[in-house]
Amino acid sequence: MSSQHTQHSDTSLKRAGLISLDALRTAVEGNEISTVMVAVPDMLGRLQGKRLAANLFLDRIASGTRVSEACAYILATDVDMAPLNGFALTGWEQGFQDIGFVPDLKTLRALPHLPGTALVHCEAVYPDGAPVDVAPRYMLRTQLDRLAELGLEARVGLESEFLLCKGEQPVVPHNLDYALSHPPLLADFFRYLEEALHHSGTPVEAVKTEGAPGQVEVTFPYGPALEACDAYTVYKQVVRHLAQRQGMTATFMSAPFTGMCSGLHLHLSLWQDEAPAFATTSRTQLPTDAMGHSIAGLLSGMPHLAPLYAPTPNSYKRYAAAPHTFAPQFMNWGIDNRGCAVRVTGHGDGTHLEIRLPGADANPYLALAACLASVVHGLTEKLNPPAPCLGDAYDDRQSLPVRRDLSEALAYFDGSSFAAWALGPDVVQHYAHAAKAEIAQHRGQVTEVERERGFDRA
């Protein structure tokens, strides 16, 4: 395991985590950092961009005298980075033109797991400097601004699940939920992951093995929403990097195997004048007005925005798994009920909502943008929630079922007046086109299930 030990040497930790521009300049002069990765999150939440010479970044990009550029298709593509036509943003008719990257210098961080490297998140802009409205980071900013107009701030803690595999099988064959004794391969991975995240400015609250074989859950502390999502993209990159170093694959599929589900739960609270708007004195107390309106908005709005938090056909197989897999099957809410789409959890000032709809494959910027747009709807219309689910959430026949597949989700998204109000018609058209391309890609594929059921019997 010498490669892991080497990557966390004392030299590499001279600059670690979030750093200032002056600190970056000092690190470059001292030959500690030679490369700056400029990145924007794509539609899937992956960081895409370029590796720039650190001196060039300081002299031209950070100073504002020049903007780094990339082909606009990085915000109009599928998981395979295929250059798709039909997007208004870019395509063969437009010649696949460039967009600019404007660095958000507050996000500068050194990455000790990649010695000599720093990372900065960027805003995607058109040549005239206008923001690209379909960029996930800008979409989240837009919803945060709408919330701010109501005098409210969103604070978020993310809870991520993923699966570690060796080859095509989970690294362990059985349930290790809450276990504190792990096989050496897992124990080493956890140690390096916690260290790498701590020193990259994305410290975790907890790491644990989850209920499915090879499944891991990582929870992050509360913080401002945009910072939480930026940190998540770093985390996801670190997870994949360290897994590959140890001969494993980390998969963030929502349903990596039949009957197995991984989620990305969003823990959300609203604050007004530095005070928690969801605070309650008792677990059994009815929600505050702000919380009640937010719950109602989520239950009303999220069914229209499913392609933003469940973007692939596989996303819906998480919902369609057998009941009691901890993935919601109805648009309901309850107090400390993990079977519901929206769970009220926490205590006192820490009372908050856990939105359990997004799967592990969700882009956190888009999933959270969908949540906040729905919350704003509930608050502005002063919607009231239905009665909470008091029993088995999977026996609920009064609430709307979650969408069954991406085609159904698309039908309720494309042309939805609510989606157009929440996101803007151009954004809806962009993500509807992405969903159509994903559906078309899967529609023509022959699956193993089809072969198993029909190869010698049809």
Query: What general outline do the C-alpha atoms trace?
Result: globular
CATH superfamily of the largest domain: Glutamine synthetase/guanido kinase, catalytic domain
Oligomer designation: single chain
Q: With helices defined by DSSP (H or I, 4 residues minimum), what is the helix count?
A: 14
Characterize the biggest β-sheet. Answer: 11 strands, mixed
Just name the CATH architecture of the largest domain. Answer: 2-Layer Sandwich
How many domains, as an integer? 2
Helix content: 25-40%
Radius of gyration: 22 Å
Question: Which class do the helix and strand fractions yield?
Answer: alpha+beta
What is the CATH topology of the largest domain?
Creatine Kinase, Chain A, domain 2
How many β-strand stretches?
18
Contiguous uncertain segments of 5+ residues: 1-13
CATH class of the largest domain: Alpha Beta
What percentage of the residues does DSSP assign to strands (E)? Answer: 15-25%
What is the residue-mean pLDDT, rounded to a whole number? 92
Terminal Cα span? 51 Å
